[in-house]
C-alpha cells in the first residue's frame, strides 16, 4: 500500500507532537491501550456520575484522552496520528456587533486572528500528514479515522439540523471507550454544541434587539458609516481585503470596528444584546437541561477511564517504531510549527 | 440575501448523486484555505469521492448536484472552486464534515458572508441535509475547536 511511504516521511514531525500529547506527561511514549480500550468496553463507567459541569481541567483531560485513544487506534491501523492540544481561545466573537472599543482598536473584527487560527490549523501535524498522502492514502486514513460513511449515528440539533455520523472508525471507538454509550454521547454532543447558535439566533429575532440595532444604525449613519446592522458592517469589513494590501485592510477594519463599538456602547445595543443573550441562554439551558445533565454525567463518568488512558506508566505496547526512537521536544517549536 | 451570480454549471444539476467515486479525490490535495468545486458529472459524491479531509457541501439534498469542498475557512461562498468560478452562496442543501484534524475539527456554518447571521455547528465526521429553514441560506463557514454552549 502506498500509504507507508508518506508515513515514514512525516514520522518524526508527527512523533514530536505525539510526545507533547502524553496527557500532560512528557516522560516518554504514550501508553498503550488499556484493557478496557482493547476490549472495547461498553457502557458508561459511572452511570450515576454527578450532573455537575466538569472543570476546565477535567474537560481538557477528556479531550486529551480522546486524542490519545484515537492516536493508538490509528497507530494499530497503520496511520500515525498526532495528539495535539487545541489552542485555548481562537479569539472573541461578537455575534451582536463589536461592543468593546479597546478590543476593536487592537483586533478590528478579528480578521487577523482568524488568519492566525487558519494558519494554526494548516500547521496541524495531522493536517500536514494527511495532505502528504496520495488520494487513495487519504481515503484510507480518513475512513480509519471516521468510518467509511457518515451513517450509524443520528441526532437532531436544536437548530433543526439532523446530523449523522459513522459509528465506526477511531473517533467513534475512542468516544465509545470513554463514554460507553456512543449513540447517547453523540446525541448530547450535537444538541449541546448547538445551543450557542440557537441562543444567538433568538437574540437576533428579538424585537428589543431590532430596536436597539435601529438606534445603533442611526449612530453609525451620523458617523458617516451608514450600515443598517452589525452584520452589514462586518461584511463590509470582510471586503476590505479585496482591494487593499493586508496591513491597510487591517487598519481600515479596525477603524470601522472602533466606530461600530463606540456606537454599540453609546446606544442601548451593547446592554440590550448582552441582557438578551443572558436571558435566552438561561432559557435554552432550562429547555435542554436533560441533555446538558446527561452530557455532564457522561463526562464525569468517563474521568476514571481518561485518567487511566493518560497515566504516564500505563504502557503495554507500542507498535510504531518511529515513535519509540523519536526525540522528545517539549514545545511545539521546530520545523513543523 | 440572495446574491446569485451566473449559474455556470446548470446542466449538471440533473445528474444522479452517486457518480463515479475516484476522480474527485485527487482534487482534495488542496492546501488550507483553498476550495474545490466539482459537479456531479465529475464525481463528487457521498460514497467516498469527497472523503478527502475537506468540508463539503452539495447543492441538492443527500449530497447530490454541484459540490464545493474546502480544507480551510471560507468567509464567502460566492466564489468556490479552482478559479473561484462557482457560486455556492445561499444554495447548499447538504454537507459532510470530513475534516482530518485533532483540533479545529468541528465546522460552524453561517447564514451570511463573513460569518454573520444565524449559524449551526457540526462535529468532525458529521453529515446531514440542511433543514428547510436553512436550505439555500448558508454563505460562509469556519473550522472551530468547539462551538461552546
UniProtKB/TrEMBL annotation, chain A:
Q: Which residues form the signal peptide?
A: 1-28
Q: Where is the composition biased (Low complexity)?
A: 35-57
Q: In terms of domain of life, where is this protein from? A: Bacteria
Alphabetically sorted, this entry's keywords are:
Signal
Region: Disordered, residue numbers: 28-58, 310-337
- What residue spans carry the Basic and acidic residues bias annotation? 315-327
What is the protein name stated in its UniProt record? Lipoprotein
From TrEMBL, chain B:
Task: From the UniProt annotation, give the residues forming the signal peptide.
Answer: 1-26
Query: What are the record keywords, sorted?
Result: Signal
Q: Which Pfam families match?
A: Inhibitor_I36 (PF03995)
Specify the protein name.
Peptidase inhibitor family I36 protein
